[in-house]
Amino acid sequence: MTDRTAHSAEAAGAPTRTVLLRGGEVHSPADPFATAMVVERGRIAWVGSEGAADAFAQGVDEVVDLGGALVTPAFTDAHVHTTSAGLALTGLDLTGARTLSAALDLVRAYAASRPADRVLLGHGWDASRWPERRAPYRAELDEATGGRPLYLSRVDVHSAVVTTALLALVPGVRPDGDRPLTADDHHAVRRAALAAVTPAQRAEAQRAALDRAASLGIGSVHECGGPEISSPEDFTGLLALAAERPGPRVFGYWADRDLGLARELGAVGAAGDLFVDGALGSHTACLHAPYADAAHTGTGYLDVRAVTEHVAACTEEGLQAGFHAIGDAAITAVVEGVRAAAEKVGLARVRAARHRVEHAEMMTPATIAAFAELGLTASVQPAFDAAWGGEDGMYADRLGAGRARTLNPYAAMLKAGVPLAFGSDAPVTPLDPWGTVRAAAFHRTPEHRISVRAAFTAHTRGGWRALGRDDAGVLVPGAPADYAVWQTGDLVVQAPDDRVARWSTDPRSGTPGLPDLSPGSALPVCLATVVGGREVFVRPQG
């Protein structure tokens, strides 16, 4: 691991102070009733009871009174687009717009507030939630911006609407009337729009995203960059920024079939959003059967042969491979390609590489079994179901209620032994780790629900395991001291059936408790986040 690959105390030199935290609840499998923890040289040195903590009190540099707060491993967000997430925080964010007219009002106000910007950037519109049920027309955007270049990505980032002035900067793009741009046309206008972001704007956005992550108890993120998503300058700039400032660790994935470039950029894998297909909301996820609301099956970008070649090459080079696949046809192509690669280079080597698939939404019993057989990690986003699942959600619009009910089957995946790593795909859905855990535990389709404990593990240790590391994401002696301190209510052991909850003080359970995440309950508030023994966030008092 290099400084360019991940900001970490391991790379930069661990702090030398020894700290005792006591008087709280420490979530650790080493002791389900732990109330204290010692951190030494950036690692967990001891976890145990309040009485035993007395033996350490005189030999440490600092004693922290937790005041009853909960200490957990820091979260890992396994799929983030950091610059785009930051631009949504610092720029034009349409995720809160409830109508088309409200979105246009926001565009108009933003354009007026940014007279010097060469290109206006915005994100987050979702016509499926608007009463008008359509995207903005180009003429409407031209009027709202006063004729300036504007790029507005849909919430899933797989399509966009733009102004006439931006189209003029991208020769060769031929829009189909007012339909949102998808596939190659979308990639072309996105490249042109992001090229207008200055290094200062980019760094500001990256800092904003990482600071937000730290404030939410996120200790590490997996950046999913690539030539169709960002740029080499954006990618290396983020890794350099993260290495030089306190904040979450950043592990960079570069979605490119050029393995030499991925290594040169400091990526941990030629993976992430290497697109096999697009997204359901934009009608670009690749399906076996046509959409319910469109007479086609979406868009495929990579076939079985391309998947096979990439996985085999990465396995031979000792590099993690991975793909973006949402539709059932795209997932089938991934499975068939990985299986063919395993026949070439050996199943054991493919499994050991822990290749990964992002999103993996339209899984079937056959592809679930194949993921388990091939050792594929599913990097998934439970907030997608919370946002678009259910009988009346976007998934049902696109696929029909029957197919929609099969999406994101986390319980079946865990039962089959498929490793899960949770993330947000920010800015597609916001950074919100406890909300993500809740979304998995209270999935809109009850048979897909998993326990809060399993969901929490997927959002902490799961992200580290997806990187090939089994020594982190858990508070046990020897693990990196990446943890968060929380203000929360009573702790429970919460099963997938939300009628079943036991107090964690029941000694028969032997299971450390977690906050009650029942719908409607308040989510925990992050008081502090520590990465490698260094504080990267402390909530202001008052």
What does this protein structure show overall?
The protein is α/β, with parallel strands linked by helices and 542 residues long. It contains 21 helices and 24 strands. The strands form 6 sheets. It has a 5-stranded mixed β-sheet, covered by helices on one side. A 5-stranded parallel β-sheet has the order 14-15-16-17-18. It has a 4-stranded mixed β-sheet with strand order 4-3-1-5. Helix 4 runs parallel beside helix 5. The N terminus is likely disordered. It comes from Streptomyces spororaveus. Pfam families: Amidohydro_3. This is Amidohydrolase.
Features:
542 residues, alpha/beta, five-stranded mixed beta sheet, 21 helices, 24 strands, 35% helix, disordered N terminus
Secondary structure layout:
Elements: H1 9-12, E1 18-22, E2 25-26, E3 36-40, E4 43-48, H2 50-53, E5 62-65, E6 70-73, E7 75-80, H3 82-90, E8 92-93, H4 100-113, E9 120-125, H5 138-145, E10 150-154, E11 160-162, H6 164-167, H7 183-195, H8 199-215, E12 218-225, H9 232-244, E13 249-254, H10 259-264, E14 269-270, H11 304-317, E15 320-325, H12 328-345, H13 347-353, E16 356-359, H14 365-374, E17 377-380, H15 382-388, H16 394-399, H17 401-404, H18 410-416, E18 420-422, H19 433-441, H20 452-459, H21 461-466, E19 483-487, E20 491-494, E21 501-503, E22 514-515, E23 525-531, E24 534-538
Parallel strand pairs: 1-5, 2-6, 7-12, 8-9, 9-10, 12-13, 14-15, 15-16, 16-17, 17-18
Antiparallel strand pairs: 1-3, 3-4, 6-19, 10-11, 19-23, 20-21, 20-22, 23-24
Helix pairs in contact: 3-8, 4-5, 8-9, 11-12, 12-13, 12-14, 15-19, 19-20
